[in-house]
Design a protein that fits this description.
With 325 residues, the chain is of the alpha/beta class. The protein has two domains: 170 residues, Thiolase/Chalcone synthase (Peroxisomal Thiolase, Chain A, domain 1); 149 residues, Peroxisomal Thiolase, Chain A, domain 1. The protein contains ten helices and 13 strands. The strands form four sheets. Strands 1-7-6-4-5 form a five-stranded mixed beta sheet, sandwiched between helices. Strand 4, helix 4 and strand 5 form a beta-alpha-beta unit. The protein starts with a strand and ends with a strand. The mean pLDDT is 96. The structure holds coenzyme A. The site of coenzyme A has 22 residues, from helix 2, helix 6, helix 7 and strand 12.
């Protein structure tokens, strides 16, 4: 048996920050941000919001789309780099809030590759007989770890959540394959040094501003293009299909220039590439499931279509998944 996505949903908090809002905070402007990144606005959660709150909204929509009751769920997997707390997992908070009493719950930490990693875990759980129905969520409140004095990073990120209900299906349908890779030696390119055991962020022990994202933008950019292209082609090769067979390509929504460069490398026409980063910015683990939900709503894929997902993020981590919808 395999697993298949049978419902999707997304949620973004209502508050929007435009490029002009950033121009009032740091030395930047709408023209620089739009041309270098393609981002025009991003959603930002109100203080006091938990990541599991965003998960809950997205999950309810995905469950409605699938026609599945939370009590039918066997497991929940949440990909996030901004959990509610170091522990318990955001998955456990989501389980409680959803009332998914029968489900076991966990988080997966793979930064912006969090959804593809979580989907791969969920698919493997179904194949291993550890459940027949589950929820896979990517959710972030990146505004809690963004340094709003650093113009090189703060303009990039947004908050949101996306969810997919997966269920057991016949082999050869649904998730055809997942491909995951990591390179921990490049951890420094994009990371958040504080808040863990290395720098616990206790009063008096933490060094200044360690609880924020640090990034070498230019280097990260190059790895994102190379790795997402590679892993996309890997998925096609494994399944004996070509890029011409792909109906929709959903790459991680980090930067329009990255998306364009990856699309060019794998040779997919622009009209088959889904882009919504202009309205959400980079929402890390949430970017692909938000895009999946929007793509469905806009009729960008239908039953039987081949959809290719490709992710890249801190770790470094990257991965792809080929789906028969
Ligand atoms: N507004 C105006 N100028 C800015 C700026 C901003 N928001 N951010 C950086 N700059 C400046 C830099 O200071 C630099 O100035 P200098 O030449 O005087 O030193 C100049 O713009 C060029 O900086 P650079 O970092 O080379 O720009 P870039 O074209 O690489 O674009 C990013 C920067 C961050 C947009 C781009 O590198 C990127 O998107 N990287 C990948 C990030 C990413 O996707 N991370 C997540 C991966 S999951």
């Amino acid at each position: 048996m395999g697993s298949k996505i049978i419902g999707v949903g997304m949620y973004a908090p209502p508050k929007i920050m435009t490029n002009n809002d950033f121009a009032k905070m740091v030395d930047t402007n709408d023209e620089w941000i739009s041309t270098r990144t393609g981002i025009r606005e991003r959603h930002i959660a109100e203080p006091g919001t938990a990541t599991s709150d965003l998960c809950l909204e997205a999950s309810r929509r995905a469950l409605t789309d699938a026609g599945v009751d939370p009590k039918e769920l066997d497991f929940l997997v949440v990909g996030t780099l901004t959990p509610d707390m170091p522990f318990p997992s955001t998955g456990c908070f989501l389980q409680m809030k959803l009332g998914a009493d029968r489900a076991y719950a966990m988080d997966v930490s793979a930064a912006c590759s969090g959804f593809v990693y979580s989907l791969s875990v969920a698919d493997a759980l179904v194949r291993a007989g550890r459940g027949k129905k589950g929820l896979v969520v990517g959710a972030e409140i990146l505004s809690t770890v963004v340094d709003y004095t650093d113009r090189g990073t703060c303009i990039l990120f947004g908050d949101g959540a996306g969810a997919a209900v997966i269920a057991e299906c016949e082999e050869g349908d649904g998730v055809l394959s997942c491909h995951l890779h990591s390179d921990g030696s490049l951890w420094e390119l994009i990371h958040c040094p504080g808040g863990g055991t290395v720098d616990p962020c206790n009063p008096g022990t933490s060094t200044v501003r360690t609880n924020f994202i640090r990034m070498a933008g230019n280097e990260t950019f190059k790895h994102a293009v190379t790795r997402m292209a590679e892993v996309s082609l890997e998925a096609l090769e494994r399944n004996g299909v070509t890029v011409a067979d792909v109906d929709l390509y959903i790459p991680h929504q980090a930067n329009q220039r990255i998306v364009k460069a990856v699309g060019k490398r794998i040779g997919i026409p622009e009209e088959k590439v889904f882009v919504n980063l202009d309205r959400y910015g980079n929402t890390s683990a949430a970017s692909i499931p938000i895009a999946l939900a929007e793509a469905k709503e806009k009729g960008r894929y239908s039953k039987g279509d081949l959809v290719l997902l490709a992710a890249f993020g801190g770790g470094l981590t990257w991965g792809s998944a080929l789906l028969r919808m």
